[in-house]
Amino acid sequence: MDKLFDRLFPIMRSITGEGVRETIEILKKYIPLKMEGIPTGTQVFDWEVPKEWVIREAWIKDENGNEIININQLNLHVVNYSEPIDKWVSLEELKQHVHTIPHLPNAVPYVISYYKERWGFCMSQSQLDSLLDGQYHVYIDSQKIEGELNYAHAILPGKSKKEILISTYICHPSMANNELSGPIVATFLYNRLKKWEQREFTYRFVFVPETIGSISYLYKYGEHLKENLYSGAVLTCLGGKNHRLSYKMSRNENAPFNHLIHFLNEREKYEMPIRPFTPLYGSDERQYCSPGFNLPVGQFSKMVYGGYEGYHNSLDTKETMSIEALKDSVDEIEQLLKLQELNGYYINQKPFGEPKLGKYDLYPDINAPGSWGKSSSKRIDNRQQLNQVLTLLNYSDGKHRLSDLVKTLNYKLEDYEVSIETLKEHGLLTGPFYEEKELFE
User: Fold this and answer.
1) Cα–Cα distance, 275 to 298 (Å, whole number)
2) At 384, is the secondary structure helix, strand, or coil?
3) Which helix (H) or strand (E) covers residue 5, if one does?
4) Which of 383, 403, 400, 386 has its CA nearest to residue 348?
5) For the segment 32-80, what is each residue's pLDDT rounded down to a tens digit?
């Protein structure tokens, strides 16, 4: 993760162009991404794919030729998508084109102007305050060309065609938590899931420029997702030190992650912070949850956008987050995906009375006080798991999701995995299914 971070951090990314393609090419060494493009000028719903922005050079110099700022030192110094400029300006005019953060005097802001033509620079307030009256040479060598908007995806097949969407964005230059935490976590999460012996779902990992990228992806794959998507999440801002993983709910009230995380918090004291859905701020979950699609997609974050000092500025560095936090995010999201796979509907294959568990080596072979808490099975070796077996068989009628029947006993959802696998090995249980089933289909 650390090495991947260092390769990605210096790249000048935007919503289009070489920075996005270079980022995808680097990620392809870790995950088998397929890159696609939508040409400039393509109408994607109410939007139009813009021209590609090419940036070669940008700097400010004083009258003596002393360099004030240069994107070679920090690529945030130029307003993203700036028009070209080559002229001498007064300090007064320069200030009209320089963006700062007055309450963070040492931070350089990240400023964008994708859809309105303008030129501009960014610097710290303290640096701007230090400039003397005089003339300044402003130079931006940029160009907007006919090209394409690029995104990429990778598909991990599972037993079902039903899909889980993991989406993240690749469009911010040189920011750690707010940019690189998402794609790095998604990349390593893919490789975790690839090692699972079996996957119930098919997993779709998507890397897009934020907003226009997800809208473009929906333009291409929205109908497929409406038909096949079971659940999903946008990954963003996952690198916060000493911050808990939190979940922003999907607009779709029936989203499985909405249900699962509420259950874990209420029944298992999971204590994951839950944020309500809102279209006012956030990331690409706003596009996936737009009313025309209303997909069951939430969002996972730790150090949430807008809630920390380095948001959208040069203070968002590797030092202000943690690579270890990224690893923890992979661990936690992987566990939630496992629980989501487990949390289906099951069908008892011997539903007429209790099955004779003894002949499957799942029940004590003598009824005596000393055997009441035991089983002769090596895997079902205490009363807790025997209780799970009996409960699973009784409530596995295709009408009760695992989290529904778990409420009848005070055991964790994950604790049922061994009991479920044992019953399936003996032909006593089938599933999971992710919609209600008729017992005698």
Assistant:
1) 10
2) helix
3) helix 2-8
4) 400
5) 999 999 999 999 999 999 999 999 999 999 999 999 999 999 999 999 9
What are the structural domains of the chain?
Answer: 2-50+148-342 (3.40.630.10), 52-145 (3.50.30.90), 345-433 (no CATH)
Q: Could you tell me whether strands 274-275 and 246-248 are parallel, antiparallel, or unpaired per DSSP bridges?
A: parallel
Cis peptide before 432 (omega within 30 of 0): yes
Burial-class residue 292 by CB neighbours within 10 Å (0-12, 13-18, 19+). exposed
The residue to which tokens 């070796």 are assigned: 381
Distance CA 410, CA 388 (A): 10
Give the predicted TM-score (pTM) of the model.
0.94
137/156 Cα distance (integer angstroms): 52
Residue 261 has pLDDT above 90, yes or no: yes
pLDDT tens, residue by residue, 67-122: 999 999 999 999 999 999 999 999 999 999 999 999 999 999 999 999 999 999 99
DSSP 196-226: SS--SSEEEEEEE-TTHHHHHHHHHHHHHHH
Cα separation, 355 vs 441, in Å, equals 20
239-260 pLDDT, tens per residue?
998 899 999 999 999 999 999 9
Indicate the residue type of 94: L
Query: Nearest CA to 248 among 320, 300, 318?
Result: 300
Residue 137 has φ and ψ, to the nearest 5°, of -90, 115
Phi/psi for 348 (5° steps) reads -70, 125
Quick one: pLDDT at residue 368?
45
> Is pLDDT of 377 > 60?
no
- State the burial class of residue 343 (Cβ atoms within 10 Å of its Cβ: 0-12, 13-18, 19+): buried
Strands (E), 187-321: 202-208, 229-235, 246-248, 274-275, 297-301
Residue 17's H or E segment, with its range, is none
Residue 66: CB partners within 8 Å, gap ≥ 6? none
Asked whether the beta carbons of 98 and 85 are under 8 A apart, the reply is: no
Closest by CA to 245, choosing from 370, 334, 158, 318, is 334
Q: What is the pLDDT of residue 15?
A: 97
